[in-house]
């Protein structure tokens, strides 16, 4: 039984994330989508909302389950018995961001990191860009599940109403 962890903030989860998780599930017996919960970081969606969205979006993916985590990723991976972390790479910029974390995680616990090349359809898709574009009225529907898209539009409307 091999288990991997796909960690991230998922604020919110995009179809790019889903593609990586689905492909990771074909490489490992079980994949834990680990939603980083960090009270000190301000996000558009709360910890509970990000967990709910991730659970809804992956409900039909066999071998995938969702958990929240805080603290060191290596400690979480040890606790769930994961042999590897899976990360998607969209660009050289992603690689430069991810490589030191992969090396630090190896230093900390010997945890392996497996990089999966992003599909071209998702190379330009990130949670931050999706939030920015949607906030300015642009169409991001193709990059999100219908449930996540609806929540994003609702949250943007709430924030606008708050002023
Ligand atoms: O979606 P993100 O924001 O790129 O996710 C980053 C995340 C949560 C995967 C990363 O910040 C992380 O692993 N945090 C856990 C704390 C930790 O282990 N930090 C040291 C990394 S070497």
Can you walk me through this structure?
The structure is a single chain. The chain has 163 residues and is α/β, with parallel strands linked by helices. The protein has helices at residues 15-27, 47-58, 73-80, 92-109, 127-135, 146-162; strands spanning 3-8, 30-36, 64-69, 84-89, 112-117. It has a 5-stranded parallel sheet with strand order 3-2-1-4-5, with helices on both faces. The structure holds 4'-phosphopantetheine. 4'-phosphopantetheine (PNS) is lined by residues 7-9, 36, 72-73, 101, 104-105.
Observed structural traits:
6 helices, single chain, 5-stranded parallel beta sheet, Pantetheine-phosphate adenylyltransferase, globular, EC 2.7.7.3, 5 strands, nucleotidyltransferase, alpha/beta, binds 4'-phosphopantetheine, 163 residues, transferase
What secondary-structure arrangement, pairings included, does this model have?
Blueprint lengths: L2 E6 L6 H13 L2 E7 L10 H12 L5 E6 L3 H8 L3 E6 L2 H18 L2 E6 L9 H9 L10 H17 L1
Parallel strand pairs: 1-2, 1-4, 2-3, 4-5
The protein binds 4'-phosphopantetheine (PNS).
Tally of strands: 5
Helix-strand makeup class: alpha/beta
Listed once per kind, the bound small molecules are: 4'-phosphopantetheine
Q: Going across the biggest sheet, name each strand in turn.
A: 3-2-1-4-5
Strand proportion, as a percent range, falls in: 15-25%
Q: Overall mean pLDDT score?
A: 96
Q: Mind describing the biggest β-sheet?
A: 5 strands, parallel
Poorly predicted tracts of residues:
none
Please report the number of helical segments.
Answer: 6
General form: globular
Order of helices and strands: EHEHEHEHEHH
Q: Level of helix content?
A: 40-55%
| Rounded Rg | 16 Å
Keywords: Nucleotidyltransferase, Transferase
Protein name: Pantetheine-phosphate adenylyltransferase
Enzyme class: transferase
EC number: 2.7.7.3
